[in-house]
Amino acid sequence: MQAKDIDGRARIATIIDLERYPIDRPRSPAFDALVTRCLDELSQDGCCVLDGFIRPGSVARMAREATRSHEPGAARPSLEGTAYTLFHAR
User: Fold this and answer.
1) What per-residue confidence (pLDDT) applies to 68?
2) Is the pLDDT of residue 18 over 80?
3) Domain count along the chain
4) Mind giving me the DSSP string for the chain?
5) Could you list the residue range(s) of the whole structural domain that residue 52 is in?
6) In a domain, 80, yes or no
7) Do residues 71 and 63 touch, judged by C-beta distance below 8 A?
8) 60 vs 2, residue with greater confidence
9) Is residue 83 part of a domain?
């Protein structure tokens, strides 16, 4: 693993609980077990709950960022709609 990969994983690990949800280790037994569990939940319930996927401190930080994005003078994209509506409008 290169130093850049380790640094990127460390940054992601501050946001996502990679021990419980090893999305950074595809093709590992832990990753495969997670995918199997999620597919089973989707099949049975129509959704998959990843409790604790985002670390609590990161949830709070995301909420602050979302709140700031609605403040007067906050930068906003000039396009209206989503990537899906733009795609279908062509």
Assistant:
1) 78
2) yes
3) 1
4) --HHHHHHHHHHHTTB-TTTS-TTSTTSHHHHHHHHHHHHHHHHHSS---TTSB-HHHHHHHHHHHHHTTSTT----S--S-HHHHHHH-
5) 3-74
6) no
7) no
8) 60
9) no
Does residue 85 fall inside a structural domain? Answer: no
∠ CA 59-16-62, nearest 5°, is: 25
Residue 88 lies in a domain: no
Q: Per the structure block, which two tokens stand in for 2?
A: 């290169």
Distance from chain centroid for Cα 29: 21
CA distance 70 to 63: 11
pLDDT in tens, 41-89: 999 999 999 999 999 889 888 888 888 777 777 666 666 666 566 555 4
CA distance 46 to 57: 28
The answer for residues whose C-beta is within 8 angstroms of residue 46's C-beta and 6 or more apart is none
